[in-house]
Amino acid sequence: MAGLDTYYEYLKRQHYLATHMELTDVNVNNVLNEIRPYIEADGGYLEFVSVDYLEEGPVVFVKLLGACESCAMSSMTLKQGIETHLQNKWPEIKQVIQV
């Protein structure tokens, strides 16, 4: 029976690895590539800065440039667009901060 438990744990781990991306700078930047065309269509630009692990958990830092710098809707884009998209991939992300 112990062998089955070990095999089950192995399968669970393999499933997790196959369905979840690790929270790394490269993976976050790749996921941001999915939404960059929408931001660029309005004359803006999204630059990835870093993922930092603060006391409350992982935080992603980005820069909104171009038309986004002076846009009144940039805080909406940041929170309801970028942050929501990243948290769908990695629920452990606490927030996305513009620098």
Q: How would you describe the overall organization of this protein?
A:
This protein has 99 residues and is an alpha+beta fold. The protein has a single domain (21-98), classed as Fe-S cluster assembly (FSCA) (GMP Synthetase, Chain A, domain 3, 2-Layer Sandwich). The chain is built from 3 helices and 3 strands; from the N terminus they run ααββαβ. It has a 3-stranded mixed sheet with strand order 1-2-3. The protein starts with a helix and ends with a strand.
Keywords:
99 residues, GMP Synthetase, Chain A, domain 3, three-stranded mixed β-sheet, 3 helices
Could you provide a short overview of the structure?
The chain contains 3 helices and 3 strands; from the N terminus they run ααββαβ. It is α+β, with helices and mostly antiparallel strands. Strands 1-2-3 form a 3-stranded mixed sheet.
How do the strands and helices of this protein lay out in sequence?
Layout: H1 2-19, H2 25-41, E1 44-54, E2 57-66, H3 74-89, E3 95-98
Parallel strand pairs: 2-3
Antiparallel strand pairs: 1-2
